[in-house]
């Protein structure tokens, strides 16, 4: 059975979705860069080992990443799962786990990389928004895309209502993507796209708006 380590910084609802999906994999540990992350308590309630590697206790990004990698490597995971982990990782760290780090980002990449994605989607007036699971490369929010889910943007959406609609889809596609990785069904092709072995064929389009 594959082993994963999950990195969080806060609430950890994506982590929780993965834990509660009861996937055929072992969650070796949940590690946070912030001791106050409420997701740590959720992980403990699920009987998962937790660790804190506080970025503030390290002189710079490289020193933090070295300490983080040392903690992770004690568990020898097959996959690192970033679930609301709010630190930018150094190229050296990413290279150490090459093709073995997944992240969830709350936008349809390559649109809206970075922060405040829901606010920016509303400002841009897009009719469709969503979330993406991608492999992590040194360039922030740019790695090969594994899965995406799209949601409609409604006229009366606030940042919060849109975020909630996207988050529900994050909780759906992230456990799925982690399961695919652990079943060795994902392959990164030479041109940087990701193929799923034995994939079905989606047919429905999401068209927004629709007339009443
Ligand atoms: C999610 O929206 C995730 O996409 C983003 O940060 C948020 C984390 O939420 N990277 P949670 O900690 O998983 O609840």
CATH superfamily label of the largest domain: Formyl transferase, N-terminal domain
Count of strand segments: 9
Count of discrete alpha- or pi-helical segments spanning 4 or more residues = 6
> Please, what is the average pLDDT?
97
Estimated radius of gyration: 17 Å
CATH architecture of the largest domain: 3-Layer(aba) Sandwich
H-E order: EHEHEHEHEHEEHEE
Low-confidence stretches: none
Shape: globular
CATH overall fold name of the largest domain: Rossmann fold
CATH class of the largest domain reads: Alpha Beta
Strand content: 15-25%
The helicity comes to 25-40%
Major beta sheet, specifics? Answer: 7 strands, mixed
- Biggest sheet, spatial arrangement of strands: 3-2-1-4-5-6-7
> Ions, cofactors, ligands: which are bound?
5-O-phosphono-beta-D-ribofuranosylamine
Structural class call reads alpha/beta
Q: Distance N terminus to C terminus?
A: 49 Å
Summed up, the domain count is: 2
